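Mods, move this if it's the wrong board.
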Amino acid sequence: MTNGDNEAHLRHVSRAMLHGEHCIFPPLDASGHDSEDPIAQSKLDNGDGEWKYVKEILGWLIDGENYTIQLPLEKCQKITSLIKTIVKKPRCHLKKFQVLAGKLQHASYGIPGGAGLFSPIDMAATQAKDNMVIITEHLKAMLLDWHALVNSFKQPPLQFNFYLQTGQTT
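Not the wrong board. C-alpha cells:
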C-alpha cells in the first residue's frame, strides 16, 4: 500500500484508509443503520490492521518487501490431495469436481495466462451426465499438469523484480 516505513507516514496512510472506508460505509452513528461497524474492532484487536511486509490477502500470501505472492501451503496441499483423489477414479461427482475447479480458478491467478488452462475443466463439467464427470485420459493428464503447477507453489516464491534487476529474460 505504501513505500514508506516512517511511523508518522504509516499512521497518516492508515487514517486515510479508514477515512476512505468510512466514506463508502459511514459509521453507524452517521448512517442510522443498526448493523455492525464496517471496520471490525475484533479484527483490529487480532492484528489484522497492523503494518506488516507479509500478509494474507484474499487467500494469497503477499510479501511487499520482496515483491512476491504465494499460495499458502495448506491450500496447495488441499488442492493436490483433491486432484490425487479425483484422478484415481473413472468418474467424479459433479459437485466435487466443481469444488476442485473453484480451487484451481483461485490458484490460476498466480499463473500468467492461467485462465486459459480451464477449457478442459469447463468442457468436462458441461458434459457431466447424471451429476457425474467422466475422467478421461485427456482430463486426467490435464489435472496431473495442474497438480505439478500447484506443487510448484509450495516452493519459495520467485521475486517479481528478479528479472528486472539481473536483466535476464524468461
